[in-house]
Every structure is written in structure tokens, then in C-alpha cells.
Design brief:
285 residues; mainly beta; Jelly Rolls; 7-stranded antiparallel beta sheet; 4% helix; binds cobalt (II) ion
Length: 285
């Protein structure tokens, strides 16, 4: 692993917005609409976590997507996915689902439990303009297929996308080069890793708290906060006590116009109108 010489500092701390989506699932929108340009190519990040069935039981019945990719990381609980192309899968216990909506499909994501904890993340990753209408693609990745790396004492990283040391995660996207790491501190420790210059990056803490170390000093990122990292610097350096856990996201910006209408993300208003028309006419999935 190449060393980090100029670790990035926290540009700002972001508190997510409590909201509801689907048929009434309570979640925290960590990456909201107003951060789409700043965190290009990431369009959205939702965190959900509850032990109350009322918060998740309604699930996400049939709905369309076009123009981007969704990555679902299911930490705890059981969620069944079905889509209009005949794909079906059960996500549980650290499994990941990677779906490239491309030109469009209709899918549902429904809980398969009536009690207990449901916890995880859904990330929306943009596609470059020339791939927005590509053939849809779908992949279920069991947790056992995700590389687990121990880059330093007390630190365990699950690699979902990008690479840590020499271990590459199953999700690789040429144009956006996403990194998606789940960093768990099993003891007090420090994790540092290069991030390509110019790539947009952030940390979201979901257990304990994590300190971002840089030349600007030490910035604590508490639980349920995003630490949005500045674009200068060649990597990140995190320290935390045992029990802390955070996800790290980084990606190469596309620098293209972003036009969103609900579940459709295109480059222009005309393309959005076309998406709505295609959906209404049954031409999606
Ligand atoms: Co969806």
C-alpha cells in the first residue's frame, strides 16, 4: 500500500435528513439532492436502520429506474428483490446488490421479516451520458464474495467497490471508478488509504465515532454524520476506538449535467420527459 502524505480534511459535517420513501419506509437521506454536484458521481445515499417493523414493513413496491446504478448493502435483515426482467434475489447479512438500471426496469424491494432489525444502505451511482440507456444489468453478491482486508492492527475493511491494498471489490465501474469500503475498528486503531486526486469522497459513520486526521488537525465525525472530504490531498486517514464503524465512498466525477425526476436521472429535461413517457407507455422493463 502506498503511503498517504497529505490526508484530506473534513470540508464539512453533514447531518442527513429523516424522510420516508417507498410505501413508507423510514430512512435517513445522508446524501441529499443539494450535494449531487459536489459529490458527483454519487446521486444519493440512504441509511436505514430500525428494530421496529413499522419503520420498514411497507417496503418498496414496484417502481421504475432509468439512467444510473443502485448499490444496496444489507447489513442486517432480509429484503427480497424482484424486477421486470425476471431477476429475483434475497439480500441479507452483509450481502450486496448491484443493479444497473440503464434504459430502465421496474423493481420491488420488500422485507422478508416481520420483526427484528433491518439495517443497511442504498447508494445511487450515476452513469455517463453514453451509458444511460444501456442494457440493464443485475448482480447479487453474497457477503462471502466480498474481500475482507486487515490493512492495519485493529482495522477490518470489507471491500464492496474499488480496491484496498490488492483486493478489489466486485463492483468496478470504468467511468466513475467508485470506492465503497466498510471500515470496522475491532480495536483502537488507524486506517489510511490513498484516494485518487480529484475524486470526490466522504465518510459516513454508523457506529461509535471516527476522527479524520489531516494537516488541518483532528476532526471528529460523530455517529450518523457524513464527513465530506475536501478534494485536495492524496488519501484519507481515520482513527477510532474499538467498535466504531464507517463507510467510505469515493468516485471520479463525470462533470455532466444532472437532471432528476424521482427515480429517473438523466442529463436533460427532455430526456426526463421521455423517461416518464416510456414508463407510462409500458416501455420500461
Ligand atoms: Co429502487
Amino acid at each position: 500500500m502506498s503511503a498517504v502524505h497529505r490526508p484530506r480534511r473534513v470540508e464539512r459535517l453533514v447531518r442527513g435528513q429523516a424522510t420516508q420513501d417507498g410505501a413508507g419506509v423510514r430512512l435517513t437521506r445522508v446524501l441529499t439532492h443539494d450535494l449531487q454536484q459536489r459529490l458527483d458521481p454519487f446521486l444519493m445515499l440512504d441509511a436505514f436502520g430500525s428494530d421496529s417493523a413499522d419503520d420498514y414493513i411497507a417496503g418498496f413496491p414496484d417502481h421504475p429506474h432509468r439512467g444510473f446504478e443502485t448499490v444496496t448493502y444489507m447489513l442486517q435483515g432480509r429484503m427480497r428483490h424482484r424486477d421486470s426482467r425476471g431477476n429475483e434475489g434475497l439480500l441479507q447479512n452483509g450481502d450486496v446488490q448491484w443493479m444497473t438500471a440503464g434504459r430502465g426496469l421496474i423493481h420491488s424491494e420488500m422485507p422478508e421479516q416481520e420483526e427484528g432489525v433491518m439495517e443497511g444502505f442504498q447508494l445511487w451511482l450515476n452513469l455517463p451520458s453514453h451509458l444511460k440507456l444501456c442494457e440493464p444489468r443485475y448482480q447479487d453478491i453474497p457477503n462471502t464474495a466480498l474481500p475482507k482486508v486487515q490493512p492495519s492492527a485493529g482495522v477490518e475493511v470489507t471491500v464492496i467497490a474499488g480496491a484496498v491494498e490488492d483486493k478489489a471489490g466486485p463492483i468496478q465501474s470504468e467511468h466513475t471508478q467508485p470506492a465503497f469500503w466498510d471500515v470496522r475498528f475491532t480495536a483502537d486503531g488507524t486506517f489510511e488509504h490513498p484516494i485518487a486526486e480529484g475524486h470526490h469522497a466522504f465518510v459516513y459513520v454508523y457506529r461509535g465515532s471516527v476522527t479524520v486526521l489531516s494537516d488541518a488537525g483532528a476532526q471528529e465525525v460523530p455517529r450518523e454524520r457524513m464527513g465530506l472530504l475536501d478534494n485536495a490531498g492524496d488519501g484519507l486517514r481515520l482513527s477510532a476506538k474499538a467498535g466504531a464503524q464507517a463507510i467510505v465512498l469515493a468516485g471520479k466525477p463525470l462533470h455532466e449535467p444532472i437532471a432528476q425526476y424521482g427515480p429517473f436521472v438523466m442529463n436533460t429535461r427532455e430526456q426526463l420527459m421521455q423517461a416518464v413517457e416510456d414508463f407510462r407507455a409500458g416501455r420500461m422493463g
